[in-house]
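Table S2 (continued). Query chain:
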Amino acid sequence: MPDEKYDALMHHFVYNKTWLRSKFPPETKYISIIRHPFGHLKSQMNYFTLAKVLKIKGHGNAVKVFLQDPWQHRNRSETFFPHVNITWDGTRNPMTFDMGWPAERADEEEEAREYISKLDSEFTLVMILEHLDESVVLLRRLMCWDLRDILLYSKVKNSRPYPYKNYVATPEELEHHRSWSAVDYLLYNTFNNSLWRKINAQGQDFYDELNYYRRMKHRVSDHCARIGRKRKGQPMVISPSKWNAQFEVDTTYCSRCPWTGR
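Corresponding output:
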């Protein structure tokens, strides 16, 4: 409905500042997460079966074939969705697309740099998957949350295999990807630098909390793994600290605890 207002929105969607400002109050916090563009390319190639879209056949490593010459696949990698009048490219700058940068403007790097700089001022935090522990501890501080709000179940569940999941690109392939998906690399580098700038402003106490968080995460993960198999068991009590009030980890908490996997 046009006049509806919202308290929270948590899902995959394309960032639209104008629409969001019309639905949420001015003090709304904006949070996202991104990952290294090459790791994201591998995930995209698998999840969206882009090898079929790109007509890469008879090769177990579609990423390697694609990165030999990404430009030759350009006409196939772009997809137009007429019902929303949007062009999407799953191989070229897909993360920046999700942050509101049009796929058709992939070559406008200087304009994209200005846009990403504005994003840095609009978002409370853009987390980095490769530094997930640091990201969630910083998130807790910025949002004034409790430890129990950020604990992640660290037993990896995203174990879906695919042939090139652990493939390490050659320097030449990475250079091709940086050229092809240059705006995503701008995005990643900007927010990776932003993350560490914010962490450095926290002081040494941040690393004390980070170490504590990692210990508690492993304790809770081990406990949830044990009672999860039995679907019963005595709750574990997490003692109070300077970063959390006392709380219990029971089967209900474990069932709701987010999991982390790459």
